[in-house]
């Protein structure tokens, strides 16, 4: 029977090449830590293909975009995997009202190519432009934008294919439960197929920076940056290995002429220098001190002026190591209320030093509260600590990362904070439920919309799967050992 099924799939792929079907392939994310063998990969180019696939598939379905979620959130064994990257058209652009409607597989860079001639810019996105819109909505991403927060704040409407194949519109006014469940829902409720997003003007921005002890950063940000009428981008980089110094970098609106003439970063930019610098920081003795005391002081000598779109068009390729076989570079993120900043960072530093974590960088961001998503990470005004580190790929290495990750999660929870779900699934069940207290509403919505648990991935296998639902202590007990 299995051979007949394989033959049927292969025959369909030959007879219907427009469906872009491939069978029994491995889906992995950028870290290369989470390979999963799926039964089929479908690369749709039309809404009809997605609807038909969802209606006719009775087993699990997983959804992937640029594959930068780093803990199995895009894959499930023996699933039909929807690779959305060719579902990437601009549906409508309204320059007068500063809105754009796009298919969910489009990347932010593809959007920038379309809107830059109109001198418009994306309102909220991640630092890097080669993620898909659908993926960004699924994780409810954020960036370096001042006076902003989770991307849901810039979304006017979404279109979703539900588990039964229905195509539904959702917004803060229409099908609210779906809107606030799907955004930040990690593919558990359906397939995001379209989104209408707010745009803003593409202004000129000038970079400035200030180096300070970490103990001064919170007050500096709240007094100098948070209410600034001109600040557009901001991040504070904490320098390892001592974690006592922060370089605060701000890009503010200006009328000065641009010093960087290109309106967008070139698509084929050479990132050799960036990649080698990260290699030195992560691998060489005194590499971290070389960065802090020599490389970055030289880098920040001038005050460049660029277009907002240029500063928003970075490519994640600049972070790519030469190999991920024996070691790989990974992200984590923790959120703490702004008033608890000084309570959290000493605990974070202690955990990282005790575990001897090879930290490459910790970037501080800021976010306003989420307007109501069920799995909101910004339940109030938050500082985000984005941890970029290197780890080994062996089982022992991964177990060690799990141990210190759970300690960092506990540290964040101890100050009424949270942690971010797009990364490795190390949190215990109790930690997940404490960090995301509306999980019950989310799970109830999934049970109503997806009673057969059709939409799955490794994240929801861990926290929603039937065994865990029947025995909530299983995960906590197993991961605590």
- Mean pLDDT over the full residue set: 91
Strand content: 25-35%
User: So how many helices?
Assistant: 16
CATH class of the largest domain: Alpha Beta
User: How far do the termini sit from each other?
Assistant: 41 Å
Q: What fold name stands as the CATH topology of the largest domain?
A: Alpha-Beta Plaits
Helix vs. strand class: alpha+beta
Return the CATH architecture of the largest domain.
Answer: 2-Layer Sandwich
> How does the major sheet shape up?
8 strands, antiparallel
Please explain how this structure is put together:
This protein has 16 helices and 18 strands. By secondary structure, it is of the alpha+beta class. It folds into four domains: 2-86, 2-Layer Sandwich (Uridine Diphospho-n-acetylenolpyruvylglucosamine Reductase, domain 2), CATH 3.30.43; 90-201, Uridine Diphospho-n-acetylenolpyruvylglucosamine Reductase, domain 3; 204-429, Alpha-Beta Plaits (2-Layer Sandwich); 431-480, no CATH class. A hairpin with a 4-residue loop joins β5 (90-94) and β6. α7 (272-283) runs antiparallel to α8 (287-299) and α10 packs antiparallel against α11. It is globular, with a radius of gyration of 22 Å. The protein starts with a helix and ends with a helix. Mean pLDDT is 91; it is low at 1-19 and 471-481.
Question: How would you briefly describe this protein structure?
Answer:
It is built from 16 helices and 18 strands.
């Amino acid at each position: 029977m299995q051979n007949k099924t394989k033959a049927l799939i292969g025959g369909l792929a030959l007879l219907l090449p427009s469906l872009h079907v491939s069978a029994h392939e491995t889906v992995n994310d950028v870290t290369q830590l989470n390979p999963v063998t799926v039964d089929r990969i479908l690369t749709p180019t039309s809404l009809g293909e997605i609807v038909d696939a969802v209606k006719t598939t009775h087993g699990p379905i997983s959804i992937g975009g640029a594959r930068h979620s780093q803990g199995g959130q895009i894959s499930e064994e023996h699933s039909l995997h929807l690779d959305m990257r060719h579902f990437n058209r601009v549906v409508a652009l309204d320059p007068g009202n500063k809105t754009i409607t796009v298919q969910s597989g489009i990347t932010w860079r593809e959007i920038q190519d379309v809107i830059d001639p109109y001198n418009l810019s994306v309102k909220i996105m991640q630092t890097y432009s080669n993620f898909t819109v659908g993926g960004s909505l699924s994780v409810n991403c954020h960036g370096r934008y001042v006076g902003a927060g989770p991307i849901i704040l810039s979304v006017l409407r979404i279109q979703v294919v539900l588990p039964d194949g229905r195509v539904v519109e959702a917004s803060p006014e229409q099908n609210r439960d779906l809107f606030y469940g799907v955004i930040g829902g990690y593919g558990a409720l359906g397939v995001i197929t379209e989104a209408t997003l707010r745009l803003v003007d593409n202004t000129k921005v000038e970079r400035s920076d200030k180096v300070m002890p970490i103990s001064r950063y919170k007050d500096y940000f709240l007094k100098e940056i948070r209410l600034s009428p001109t600040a557009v981008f901001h991040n504070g980089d904490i320098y390892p290995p001592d974690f006592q110094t922060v370089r605060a970098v701000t890009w503010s609106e200006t009328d000065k002429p641009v010093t960087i003439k290109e309106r967008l970063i070139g698509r084929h930019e050479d990132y050799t220098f960036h990649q080698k610098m990260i290699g030195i920081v992560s691998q060489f003795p005194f590499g971290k001190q070389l960065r802090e005391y020599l490389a970055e002081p030289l880098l920040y000598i001038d005050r460049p002026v660029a277009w907002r779109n240029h500063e928003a068009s970075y490519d994640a390729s600049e972070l790519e190591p030469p190999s991920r076989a024996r070691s790989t570079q990974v992200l984590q993120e923790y959120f703490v209320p702004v008033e608890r900043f000084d309570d959290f960072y000493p605990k974070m530093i202690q955990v990282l030093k005790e575990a001897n974590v090879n930290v490459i960088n910790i970037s501080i961001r800021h976010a306003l509260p989420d307007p109501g998503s069920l799995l909101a990470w910004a339940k109030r005004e938050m500082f985000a600590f984005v941890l970029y580190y290197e780890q080994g790929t062996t089982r022992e290495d991964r177990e060690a990362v799990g141990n210190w990750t759970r300690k960092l999660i506990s540290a964040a929870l101890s100050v009424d904070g949270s942690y971010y779900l797009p990364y490795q699934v190390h949190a215990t069940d109790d930690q997940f439920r404490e960090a995301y207290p509306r999980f019950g509403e989310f799970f109830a919505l999934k049970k109503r919309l997806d009673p057969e648990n059709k939409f799955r991935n490794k994240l929801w296998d861990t926290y929603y799967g039937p065994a865990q639902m029947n025995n909530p202590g299983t995960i906590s007990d197993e991961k605590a050992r």
